[in-house]
Design a protein that fits this description.
Helix content is 47%, strand content 9%. By secondary structure, the chain is mostly helical. It has a domain of 115 residues: 2-Layer Sandwich (TolA/TonB C-terminal domain). Strands 5-4-9 form a 3-stranded antiparallel beta sheet. Strands 1-2 form a two-stranded antiparallel sheet. A two-stranded antiparallel ribbon has the order 3-6.
Length: 554
């Protein structure tokens, strides 16, 4: 009998904090945020970056049939070596007197998979532990099947933020596969990616980088040095550099990824579009905004080169190119800022024009494009033009229950139109990856009001621990720089009170001890709206806060 593989594929590291399309063997991939046009290009799937760094670590389901057994060697995962796995006492799964059967195991896995996909993680955790016990009793502790089951436990533990437990399970998964197979077996790639993700979530990008590098090396051995399987791993390596503040090293990795994609799609330029869009995402996260715009323009030229300048495929890169003009590199002259922002308007308008003229254009993507133009007008202080578009989209999304749910999601709360990343480490880059001291979690809790014009008002908050007042100031400065899409009620912008942001950061105990020694009574900065006059205030030419003049008269 072939190996039974009942695990879920681990997709690439994502940065948007969303649960993006899960791909399970024998099932179609679904994405609620899939962008227009890409469905018409072979093998093109839009990949969004992930701002909150949540990862879905999943491997494909295989059955006991001969056809699925042929796929098992490529997609196995694992868990703790020789570990006693806790099992829920209220086990409702019927088990024969001689022990569980393979059929019962697969049924329990289907239940686990459904629970995980539905986000019922506590019950998925229990189901994963039950699967481990069944796999051990059927196949033994030193088996690929047990490794798969234990890896799935690591998956749900990672999703629950139990990074230490997930690291133990993924590490043991690797050990089992090394014993059952060898140290260069392709089945190691998935648990290595899971381990790297857990290490990254645990605040150790240095360890994650080593793990991902080993996974990439294994793909070289098994698939060749130019294989595309390594791309998602290399993106994770780039993420470790970004988390560590080494954007130059991240850029080198992104260039390497681009070379691999260019080599693979040299005979099919349209096939290069997904990698270009993903490359631009990473360039944005690394702060290379000029490079990001160059990449979007290249994608646009490729589409236009196909002979149609009204192609719906243009909508996505045009919209994102327009959004990129909210950001400028530090080297860009300050006096050029207004001209740069204004130049983004034509891209938004062209995207809307193409989307509105295209036949059978997806309603969700059309609304997204129209809202992007309205957001631009809010950022440019043109409130009346923004309100007109918001009301139009509100009415268009008020026709059925599905659209009403989308409308509520988009307009229920204020949304930042432009936002830079908040600092993640209180001690700076040197705090990352310390081998001697574990990183500790801290919080900045901020409450504020967003006016009907999208402006932040009545800022107030606190730091935990209170000694990190400098971190609190940095968070406050960034929030005041932001411009927000206002909350809508009946299609009309209104004020939103008691908006809360909880920003988590990491610090070393030594950092806290130094602050306490230097300032026995920690400073408590002013956190009311009067803070705009405090020493940490933003420059007076910043457009992220304060009263702004309506530009509708232009």
């Amino acid at each position: 009998m072939g190996i039974v593989d009942y695990s879920l594929r681990i997709p690439k590291l994502r940065t948007n904090g969303t649960r993006s399309g899960l791909k399970i063997a024998g099932m179609d991939q679904t994405r609620t945020d899939r962008k227009p046009g890409y469905r018409n290009v072979d093998r093109m799937i839009k990949i969004k970056p992930y701002s909150a760094f949540t990862i879905l670590l999943m491997l494909p389901l295989a059955t006991l049939s001969h056809a699925f057994a042929q796929e098992n060697d490529a997609d196995d995962v694992a868990g703790p070596l020789g570990q006693t796995v806790p099992v829920a006492e209220d086990d409702t799964q019927a088990v024969t007197a001689s022990g569980p059967t393979e059929e019962q195991l697969l049924e329990e896995f289907a239940r686990y998979r459904q629970l995980f996909n539905d986000g019922i993680l506590d019950e998925a955790d229990i189901a994963a532990k039950r699967i481990i016990e069944m796999a051990i009793r059927i196949y033994g502790p030193q088996s690929r099947e047990t490794a798969n089951a234990l890896n799935n436990l690591g998956i749900v533990q990672h999703s629950n933020g139990q990074f230490d437990a997930a690291i133990q399970n993924f590490t043991s998964a690797i050990e089992i596969i090394e014993v059952v197979d060898d140290r260069l077996n392709g089945a190691l790639v998935n648990p290595l990616k899971g381990l790297g993700a857990a290490q990254l979530g645990n605040g150790r990008p240095d360890q994650a980088r080593k793990t991902y590098t080993r996974a990439a090396h294994i793909t070289h051995v098994n698939e060749g040095p130019h294989n595309l399987q390594q791309i998602e791993i290399l993106e994770s390596v780039a993420e470790t550099f970004i988390r560590s503040g080494d954007t130059k090293a991240a850029r080198q990795i992104l260039d390497r990824i681009h070379i691999l994609n260019v080599k693979h799609f040299e005979e099919s330029p349209l096939g290069l579009l997904p990698s270009l869009m993903n490359r631009a995402d990473w360039q944005h996260r690394a702060g290379y905004f000029d490079d990001e715009r160059v990449t979007y323009r290249r994608a646009i030229r490729i589409i236009e080169g196909a002979g149609d300048k009204e192609n719906p495929l243009l909508v996505e890169p045009l919209r994102r190119l327009g959004e990129s003009f909210y950001y400028i590199n530090a080297s860009t002259a300050t006096q050029q800022f207004q001209g740069v922002v204004s130049s983004g308007e034509m891209y938004f308008k062209r995207a809307v024009r193409i989307a509105e003229k295209a036949e059978d254009f997806d309603w969700n993507d059309l609304a997204t494009t129209q809202i992007a133009l309205a957001d631009y007008f809010v950022n440019a202080d043109s409130q009346r033009r923004a309100s007109k578009i918001y009301l139009q989209v509100w009415d268009d999304l008020s026709t059925d229950d599905v659209r009403l749910a989308v409308r509520d999601e988009w307009f229920r709360d204020p949304v930042a139109i432009r936002a830079d990343r908040l600092p993640q480490f209180a001690g700076g880059v040197q705090s990352v990856g310390s081998a001697k001291n574990a990183l500790l979690p801290g919080e900045i809790v901020v409450d504020y009001t967003i006016s009907a014009r999208g402006e932040l008002q009545e800022l107030r908050g606190l730091a935990k621990p209170a000694e990190f007042s400098d971190m609190q100031r940095m968070v406050h400065r960034e929030l005041r720089r932001r411009v927000y899409r206002p909350r809508l009620v009946d299609g009309v912008p209104v004020e939103a009170e008691n908006v809360r942001l909880v920003h988590t950061f990491s610090y070393l105990q030594s950092d806290l001890d130094m602050l306490r020694a230097a300032n026995p009574q920690p400073e408590k900065p002013e956190v009311t709206s009067g803070e705009a006059q405090a020493v940490d205030d933003v420059p007076s030419d910043d457009t992220g806060g304060g009263e702004r003049q309506d530009a509708d008269s232009d």
